[in-house]
Each structure stands twice: as C-alpha cells, then as structure tokens.
Amino acid sequence: MIKTTPTKKRLLLFIFFGWILLILGDRVGDLELYQGSFVATYALAITSIILLTGYSGQLSLGHSALMAVGAYTGALSIFNAGLHPVIGLIISVFVAGIFGLILGLVVARLSGPYLAGTTLALAISLPTLANQFPILGGEEGIVFDVGVASARFGDEFSQYKWFFWISALAALIMVWLVANLLSVRYGRTFKAMRDNPVAAQLSGINVGQLKVMAFALSSGVAGLSGGLLVMLISGVSPSAFPLSLSFAVLTGAVVTGLYNLKGVILGGLVLVAIPEIADSLVSRIGGSEGFTTTLPGFLVSALLILAVVFTPNGPGHLLKRHHHKKKV
Amino acid sequence: MIRNKSMKRASLASAVIAAGALVLSTLPAQAATPGVSATEIKLGISSPLTGSAGVAYGKVPGAMKAYFNYINANGGVNGRKITLISRDDKYLPTLAATQTTNLILKDNVFALVGALGTATHSKAYKAAALAKNNVPDLFVNTGFSGFGDTTKYPTTFTVLPSYAMEAKIMSKFIKEKFTGQAVALIAQDDEFGIDGVNGFKAGALTLASTTLYPQSSLTDARAKALLTGLSAIPGKPVLVMFGTTDVTAGILKAAESLDLVSKFTWIAGSVGGDANTLLALGVKATTLNGVVAASFFPDAKDKSDEYVSQFMTINEKYNKGVTFDNVVLQGMNSAMLTVQALRAAGKNLTRAGLISAIESKGAKFAGAGLVPLNYSATSRIGYNGYWFGQLNASGELKPYGGTLAIFTTDSGAGAIEASTYKRPTMPKNGIPTNS
Amino acid sequence: MTQFITAVLTSLSSGAIYALMALALVLVWRSTRVINFAQAGQAVLTTYIGYTVIQRTGSYWLALLVAVVSGAIIGAVIDRFFMRPIFKRIKSGPIVMIAPVVATLGLLGIIQAVIGFIWGLTNQSIQAPVSTDGFKVMGTVIAFSRYNLLVLIFVAVAMLLLTILFQKTDIGLALRASAYSPEIAKLSGIKVDSVRTLGWAIAGASGGLAGMLYIPGYFLFPNAMDLLLVFGFVAAVIGGLESLFGAVVGAMILGFAINFATTYISAKLFFPTAFIVLVAVLLLKPGGLFGSKKGRSA
Fold first, then answer.
1. Chain A from 241 to 300: CB within 8 A of any C CB
2. C267 and chain B: CB distance < 8 Å anywhere?
3. B127/A327 CB distance under 8 A
C-alpha cells in the first residue's frame, strides 16, 4: 500500500495530467499542437506572475524583460555555445533567476506603483540595449533551434508535436516544482508577508530577503517561459519582447486568479484562445476593410475586460470560496 | 485536499473543452495542392494592420486585394479567382509566427505574398515551416538583404532593393553631385540603419557624423538637438535621413523651426521620402521643395506614367476612400507581379511550379518599377537599383538634373553601374496576358 | 555653447510634455489609487474630437475647450460605469493593484480600436495654434518657439490651479479625504463615490489638455500617446505619485536627463536613461521625491 502524502499525490496528479496531454497530443492536428505549446508557455509566465504578485505581493510590469533575458540566454547557449537544448533551457532559468536576484536586490525597498514604474522602464529599455551587441544578432536575432525530434518517434512526428512535448513537459515540471516549494516551504511565509507584512516581520520573517527571493524565483520561471517562447517562434529578436507581452501575461494572471497556481493553464488558454475567437468571429461577420481591421483588437480587449469585471479574482476563486466553507 | 482535486478537475475540464473547441474550429481540406481549386487560388499575407507600424504600412494588403479584385472582375487567372487572406501581426515577431502558421495550417493558403518586416518575417518563415512545405514566399516587403540567402530562405523572393544597395548607390550619387560637401547620416538603430551604414562603407563615402537612434525615440526635442549639433558642420552639409517617413517629417519640421532648412542639402531614403505623407504630416511645401529622394518606382503623383494612372483608376474603384501613395503603388505592383507569376506557372498550378516560373520568367514581368527585376535561377532579389529625384513644392518627384539616371548594384561589393533599362510596357488595361 | 543652450531648451519643452501626462496620471492616482493606462487612449480620443472640431470650424481654441470638456465627461463615465463596478468586487490584496491595471489596459485597447474605426488608421496632423518658429535672440534662432512657451505656460498654470483646488477648496479636501481614507471620509458625510468620479473627470480634462498641446508637435494616430504614457508614468513615479508639483519636477528631471544623455553621450541612451534615472531616484527615496510616507514599503 502506498502512503499518499500530499506531495506524492501531487506528483501522481501531474503525471496523470502529463499522460492526458500525451494522449491529447496524438489526437489533434499540428495547429492545435502549436497553440497548445503557446498555452504551456504562457501558463509558465503566468505562474511566474502568481509567484511574484499573488504570493509575495509585488507588482511587475517588466516580465517581458525577464523573459527576454531567459530567451537570449537560451539562444546563446544553444546557437553559439552549441549546448543541448535542454541544457540551454536550464541555463535560461538560472541566468534569468540571477538577473531577477540582482533586480530584486535593487528594487526590494519599493512597493506597489514604484515597483511597477521601475519594471516598466526596464521593459522599454532592455530591448533597445539588445540591439547594441552584435553577438545578439540585431533585429534578425539569433536562431533558436531545438532541432527535430529523434527519428525513433517516426515520420509522422511533426515539428509542432515536438514543440508541444518540450513546452508541456517543461511547464509541468516547473509548475510542479513551484507547487511543491510553495506547499512545503514558502507558501505560508509568502502569504503571511503578502497579507500583513508588519505582523510577518514581528513573527521573525525577514520580509526584505523573502521579497528578493520571490523576485529571483519568479524571474527564473519567466526565463524558462521566454526560452520556450522563442523556441516556438524559432528565434529571438528585441521586438519579440514588447511591453504588450508584459501586459498580456499580467492579464492572464488576473483571469487565472492571482492566488491560484492550479488555474494557470486556464490563463494560458485564454491568452491563446481569445485572439483566435476574435479572428474567427470577425471573419464570420465580415464587413468593410476598416471594420475587420479594428474589430479583433476591440473584441480581445472587450473579452478581457469582461473577464476582469466579472471575475476579478479569477474563476478559480469562486470555487475556492465555495470550498473554504467546507474547510473551516 | 478536496479543494486541490476539484480545482484540478475544473482546470482539466476547461482545458479539454477548450482544446476541443480549437479542434472544431479547423477542418483542414486536403487537396492535391493546398489553396488551389478549380475556381479559386488562396493567397495569404501577414503584415501590420494596427498599431504604430499599421499606420505606416496598413495599406499594403488593401491595395493588393483591390488589384486582385480588379483581375477577378476581368476573368481571374486561368479561370481562377484570387482570394487574399490578410492577418494582422502588429509588427510583432510572435504574432507574425502564429499568424503565418495559421495561414498555412488553418487557411490552407497556396502561397504567401507581400510579408512585411525583418524581425517578424524571419521568425514567421521558420515557425510556419515554409521551407519544409515548399510554400512560395513572394515579394517580401523589406530591404533586409538577408532574405536573398537561398539556404536560409529557399522559397523566398524579395521585391524591394536592399538598404545596402540604396546606401551604396546613394554614396556614388553624393560623391558625384555634391563634391566637397560634408555628409551626415541620421539612421534608425536596427538592421535598417545598420545595413545602410554598411552600404555607405561599401560605397566608400566618408561620413562626417553618424547618428543611430532607437525606433520612436526621435522626438521633436531630439530632432532639434540633433540639428543644432549638425549645424556646426561648416559649409552646406548633406544630411541623409535613413528612417521612416514620420521621422523625416519630424526632422524637416524641426529644421523649419530652427530656420535651418537652407543650411543643409536634404536627402531622404526611399522608405522615408513619400511626399504625400510628408505634406499630410505638416511639412511645409516650401521646405519640401528641393529635397532629394531615392526611388525605384515612378513618382506616385505622376499621372502621365501609364502604370501609376492605371493603378490610380483601380484604386478609385476597388479601394474606395484610400489615398493613392507610394505604399498603395507598392502593394498594387506586387499584386501585379503575383498575377504574372501565377499565369507563368500555368494552369496546372503547383508550389514548385510557381517558384520555378518566377526563376525562369520573373525578370521579364511587367511592373511599375523603373529599375530591372533581378530574378533568375540563382537570384531571388527583385529590384536592384535606384534613381534620384528632387521634390518640388507640389510634392512631385522629378529626376535630379532633369534626366532620369538609373543605377544598379548588389548588396555586397559589386560595382555600381549606370543602367539603360527600359521597363516593359504595361499590359493593356493593366491586365497581364503573359504565360 | 549653442549645443548646450539647445539641450537646456529642448529639455524644458520635452519635460513640459511629460508633465502634461504625469499630471493626469497623478490626479487619478490621488483620487482612486489606480494607475490609469487608459489615459493614453482617453487623451488621444479627445484630441481626435478636437481634430474634428478644427476640421469643421477651423478654431484651435474652440477645439481645445471641447477636448477638455469631453475629456472630463469621458473620465467620469469610465469611473462610474467601469472602475466602480470592478472595485465593488475586489477589496483587498494584490488584486486591488493589478486588476485596475489590466482593466485600464483593456480599455485602452477598446478606445484605440474605436478611434481606428471612426477616424481610420492614418497619420493626421494638427496645426499648432501659435508659431512653431524658434525665437530669434541676438540674431540666432533658438530651439524654443512660441508653441513651446505656450505648452510650458499651460503646464505651470494647470499645476497651480489644480494645487489650489486640492489644497484650498472644500472639493479638494473631499478629494484628498476620499483617497487617503475612504472609510473615515464616508463617516464624515462625504459622498466618496461621487468624489472619486470627480477626480477621474478632472484627470480626464487634464488629459484632454495634454493631447491638444502635445499632438501639434507630433502626429495624430491611435497609438500616438502610448510612449508618452510610459514616460509620464515614470515622471510621476519620480515625483512621488502624490504631488502635482512632484509630477512636474519629475517630468523636468526626466526631460533633462534624457536630452542631455542623448545629446552628449549617445542617441541610443534614450530609453535606458529613463530606467537609470528612475532607479537612481528610488534608491535614494523609495517613495519618490515628493511622495508621502504611505507610498513606501514596510
């Protein structure tokens, strides 16, 4: 008889979920696999926001910059240093994490809008710096090639399925690690700090140190997400990390529910699906050129706003509230 | 733990439902050649329609559609109507990659036409596996010379002359016409400007000053500070503006404010020299008078040009409410080249057939460009030269010195040669009849 | 020397431009604790309305008035029908910070799409109401025009009037009270919700002013003020987010830093300078130059 501790149970759940994805991956077409890979990638980025904002109460508008750090690191280690893609992605995590650590040390004293402003300024300045170093390849950027899947998977195994496997597996492992970390070690401390920093401080929690750590962890996860993102678009460029990416990820986090690590896949799904839905609606409605050009932007924004207005704490929160009663 | 499980179930369920919805939204039609039926040819374009870049280039797909609709109204190509599916990538690499993949996998287009942007299209090309599926990638709208590399981009044909060619030819022009004047360069700090800087180096032009500015940083204040600095150069310096049209407008307006219009000899690159746009952006006609601009097309205001006047007529009827300018001219011209390519590939349309048709016959296609098209079995470069003109107060571009002088070159170390090229006369009513 | 004078003058005029946006952001922040990213959209929308007025009547000043009034109305409508319902659903935790950001960003997207649909996606330009030719001082034309002066005066006057409104009037007291401590304000009989809406209206009006003053020196298109929003926000944060005077000072610091760095070091430093200046200021004063203590972390 296996004794089911929460940790073991979680592992089994993740394996089960991975197995479902594996089966799903064989049933759908290339386009869905490609979209699925983006879902996994965005889910990771959202995880990183939830870690930072939901658990440690810090607001970042500069996650696109952190993702860029991971992406460039990954591309350099794969393309220039010739390392294996898996190692490249792991290096992405660590370098982005160290970058986040340094950034966290600098901004640890800032709160709310001050932190938001600083990270925003970072997000607009970092891409222009990327243009200054010839090794980073300018606008054409550096190719990020994970190669094709091993021949033993057969001819039918497309590039997109390979993308899907890599990103889904990376996301599963990372989210699993984060979930464990939060449940075993830091979850309560983070929450205590977020909900009442003064009380946390009094009960012996080093708030400053904890905030910096949250920044480093979040940054590492963002780095992996950035690495995966440029894998999916097969190369890295400064313009692949616009401010709008930061905002998109933030939106995904709100839709997910900021305190709800388990819903990240939903947030990722929303970010990928809403533009698709908007596009197909528009093509169904038709109309003048000006109308069909501006309508998708309108619909995407409108749907996101509806999501925020009606479930500002994420749909998961509704369920959560329901279960709180049982628990208490 | 109850909480965890039901949460998990909820997210799993939603994932499955959404994945299912995505599956339902696509039902790929497997034909012998994707995107071609007995009555239709489906083409796709991913380009910026909204956002800052959309303001400048959003007219391209509309202009192409207008021309295709004109051809469709006149019988189409070998009995098939052309449908152009346009997707907005907002000039962002990630969107370009997903939109182009959508064009291939969801919309099942036969070929891509007129993609725009270096960072965007270089990503989209690989992400959508264009090389692997042998999808023709026609008439890419960027002057980045890298797209001519057939090992990286085996199915791509560019149409614009490269920025490097432009800078090389401009070097020769400046050295000959403005001997003794110092030259200053203001260029955008990305592949556009950097290709240009390398081109000026290859053209052996000495630059007294080079300013590379990040995109969208050249504000009114910056332009004034820059011009003040450059006005310290003695004599009448030549000022080369290698940026987008809004930046050219900003610099010229700053010069008006500082009373420095007559201090410089102004040269605008082909990307930033559209007179209609400059006037619309508030540049005074008197300032524009005398500005030198590079081009490979006829002047978009020149109604005496047979292509321009034909395209204007089509624009009026099929692209209502859109003012005719360089961008519309460029879009229509690419559409006209596309129709000829499709005709040349014959009734039995295949992707490989289309590519080899352009390779073998592309150099002879009729188009508005005043410089030769350079397609061959070994070259995927479209136009490869420039001529220089001078704008007058009504914004018309007249050949510099009164006679049209065309120069051609390549993006590398090749020589700059004077060309006597005469473009093919326009097919009757602008409807190609080639085969 | 000319280079130096030009750098000073252009710093002043770009600082004034940043200040226009910073003021509007501070007004919303003060009254509702929201960073209003839709401000860029609101301001461009009112400028398009002003543009239409100019097309019809030819009068810039009438257009300015219409833009300011419509800015106030749009601001009030957004708060009443949009922000208020959201705040009814969220009360505490980080979501209070982040949901308004996302909501106002969504609103920005909607406004820009609507503008694109009504006015089209091409560049327009608005003629400045006064000459943009630089003043002539001792025979040389300097990099400062009547138009630059006009912007500077408007910024100073707007800042003064708003400060008086906040510090010396009952309305100002109510505005401050509802922002600092809504509960106590409510108890002392202030209609907190209406007062907040008023805060949004004033901010919207000031955004309307910003657009009509900024666009003549630039061009008009749906995204015309996106970047200005970023710099305005950075300026407001430097100034401490609480103080109108701080916003103007922050904007001037930013204007000087950017123009001097790009003039004397490299044009490539345009964006990084904003980050460096902000970090430098916040390292010294984590709540900005003129921020209240409340803004700082524990």
1. 243, 247, 250-251, 253-254, 258-259, 290-291, 293-295, 297-298, 300
2. yes
3. no
**Cβ atoms of residues A295 and A283 within 8 Å:** no
* Predicted pLDDT at A110: 86
Among the listed residues B78, B73, B67, the one whose alpha carbon sits nearest the alpha carbon of residue B41 = B78
Chain B residues close to C122, C-beta within 8 Å: 55, 58, 280
Distance CA A81, CA A91 (A): 12
- Chain C residues whose CB is inside 8 A of the A103 CB are none
Instruction: From C215, C78, C66, C56, select the one nearest C147 (Cα to Cα).
Output: C215
Q: Is the pLDDT of residue B61 over 60?
A: yes
Helices C226-239 and C39-57 pack at an angle, to 10 degrees, of 130
Residues 48-77 of chain C with CB under 8 A from chain A are: none
User: Which of A21, A64, A129, A140 would best serve as a mutation to test chain B binding (most B beta carbons within 10 A)?
Assistant: A140
Question: Across the interface, do B23 and A28 touch by the CB < 8 Å criterion?
Answer: yes
C11: Cα separation from own chain's centroid: 17
Q: Which band of pLDDT confidence, cut at 50, 70 and 90, is reported for residue C293?
A: low
B395, with CB counted inside 10 A (0-12, 13-18, 19+), is: buried
Residue of chain B minimizing CA distance to C142 = B258
Tell me if chain B has a CB within 8 Å of the CB of C168. Answer: no
Residue B257 has its nearest CB partner, among C121, C132, C262, at: C132
Question: Cα separation of C113 and C120, whole Å?
Answer: 10
ipTM, 2 decimals? 0.90
What is the Cα–Cα distance from A2 to A8, expressed in whole angstroms?
A: 9
Closest CA to A230 of A105, A120, A25, A88: A88
Residues C35 and C233: their CA atoms lie apart, in Å, by 8
> Exposed (0-12), middle (13-18) or buried (19+): which is B109, by Cβ within 10 Å?
buried
Torsion of CA C15, C123, B137, B431, to 10 degrees: -160
Smallest Cα distance from B215 to chain A, Å: 9
The residues, ordered by sequence, that sit 6+ positions from B124 with a Cβ below 8 Å of its Cβ are A233, B46, B89, B93, B96, B97, B99, B100, B101, B115, B130
pLDDT digits (tens, 9 = 90+) for C207-247: 999 999 999 989 999 999 999 999 999 999 999 998 899 99
Q: Give how far the C-alpha of residue B132 lies from the chain's centroid of Cα atoms, to the nearest Å.
A: 25
Judging contacts by C-beta atoms under 8 Å, the chain A residues touching residue C90 are: 312-313
CB contact under 8 A, B119 and A141: yes
How big is chain B, counted in residues?
435
C218 interaction partners in chain B (CB closer than 8 Å): 219-220, 250
Q: Give the tens place of pLDDT for each residue, C117-160.
A: 899 888 889 999 999 999 998 888 999 999 999 999 999 999 99
- Is C107 within 8 Å of A294 when comparing Cβ atoms? no
Tens of pLDDT, residues A141-159 = 888 877 777 767 776 778 8
User: Domains (ranges, CATH) in chain B?
Assistant: 40-161+303-383 (3.40.50.2300), 163-295+388-419 (3.40.50.2300)
Domains and CATH numbers, chain C: 2-295 (1.10.3470)
Residue of C nearest to A247 (CA): C102
* Residue C139 contacts B, CB cutoff 8 Å: no
The structural domains of chain A, ordered by start, are 6-256 (1.10.3470)
Q: Which residues of A touch C107 (CB under 8 A)?
A: 301, 305
Question: Which is nearest to A130 in space by CA: C25, C177, B52, B191?
Answer: B191
The rounded radius of gyration (Å) of the Cα atoms in chain C is 19
Helix (H, G, I), strand (E, B) or coil at A110: coil
Give the position of tokens 């800078």.
B167
User: How far apart are the C-alpha atoms of C76 and C27, rounded to whole Å?
Assistant: 13
